[in-house]
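User: As part of a screening pipeline, I want to sanity-check one entry by hand. Below is the sequence and the SMILES for NAI. Please return the complex as structure tokens so I can compare it with the automated output.
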Amino acid sequence: MVKKVYIIGLGLIGGSIALSIKQKDPSIHILGFDINEDQANLAKRIGAIDEIATKLFPDLSSVDMIFLSTPVQQTTQIIEQLKSEQLKKDVIVTDVGSTKVKIVECANQHLNGKIKFIGGHPMAGSHKSGILAAKPHLFENAFYILTPSQYVTQNDVDLLKSVLEGTKANFIEMTPNEHDEVTGVISHFPHIVAASLVYQAKNHEEQFPLVKRLAAGGFRDITRIASSSPSMWRDILLHNKEPLLHLFDEWISEMERVKAFVANEEADNLFSYFQYAKNYRDGLPEKQKGAIPSFYDLFVDVPDYPGVISEITGYLAKEKISLTNIRIIETREEIYGVLRLSFQTERDRELAIDCINKYCAYETFIM
Ligand SMILES: NC(=O)C1=CN([C@@H]2O[C@H](COP(=O)(O)OP(=O)(O)OC[C@H]3O[C@@H](n4cnc5c(N)ncnc54)[C@H](O)[C@@H]3O)[C@@H](O)[C@H]2O)C=CC1
Ligand SMILES: O=C(O)C(=O)Cc1ccc(O)cc1
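Assistant: Here is the complex for your manual check:
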């Protein structure tokens, strides 16, 4: 039975894990450490942890499980230091890093099977960092990848899953190699592309100052992830170099292919290019969170008068329902506009429908 867990790194992910454990089983004592004291103090203040560790390795003899939720470069450094610590027999150590090969190799090399290590990666998150962005339901419906090694048993994996049950994530197991190849394609490389699109816009801004103002719509959506932590992504890219180098090559030849369609005005090929991408994109499962974020959208028919947005958000605030995004859909017909509200969970969307029905008569619909 797990009575005490230690979380190192109390930012977005460490904080969300702590909150989900606390919500499910408040009797588990959570000890937390962050190199940034403000983060640790805030974690304690919001009730994510019970106790602040004043140094990286305090007395850990009664700790049953350790979560490493630091940036990936720090995670390997901490693993190296862990080997000289006095830990409880059978303690399970896990991490949440976005890469797995280097971290698991480091654990195999330094912990050598003497300390049970299970690589982990919750495949959901945000472009925001820090404990104040943490949420107990951040990983709800998301895939949570585990990469258990030959040194751990099914019981160890089950114990970890039971402590993480409050995340409501879907656990899947794979090898570290498979993990890094897949996340390279669906998460790491898209971050590079998002940042490069921002560069492209910025480079054209001098000539066309309107670029910045007009970039507020779809461009903002496609480049949202470019607002993520630069240091975190620097470290992820350095950890996953080989798969990314292949992806660069593939991407460049793909761009050359489309460029030729445009240059030669190959209308049919262009149509097929977009049609194929649309079919694949439309067929992606919707209700799982992951590197393609899925939001729970609710559309509200609202009359076009000043203050209507604050009216609706006021009702939601009254019921403590949090929104992740709000937008007026620009194609208005007649006198009604469509307000699109996005929520992080289906439950929040259901609560929002009840709330809007309670306070006003605007029609709501889900597409
Ligand atoms: N941000 C995201 O959406 C996701 C991030 N991850 C992974 O989770 C890990 C943490 O990321 P976030 O929580 O987003 O970052 P964050 O920046 O919100 O939190 C990281 C925390 O670790 C602390 N820290 C850094 N070095 C430390 C050290 N040596 N000892 C103790 N604390 C230290 C920082 O002060 C910070 O509070 C990273 O490895 C990242 O790859 C995984 C899934 C999603
Ligand atoms: O903000 C987003 O959509 C993300 O892509 C979040 C994210 C960041 C890092 C990961 O390893 C997994 C998910």
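Points to compare against the pipeline: Residues 98, 123-127, 187, 225, 291, 293 surround 3-(4-hydroxy-phenyl)pyruvic acid (ligand 2) (CB under 6 Å). Residues 176-205 form the longest helix (30 residues).
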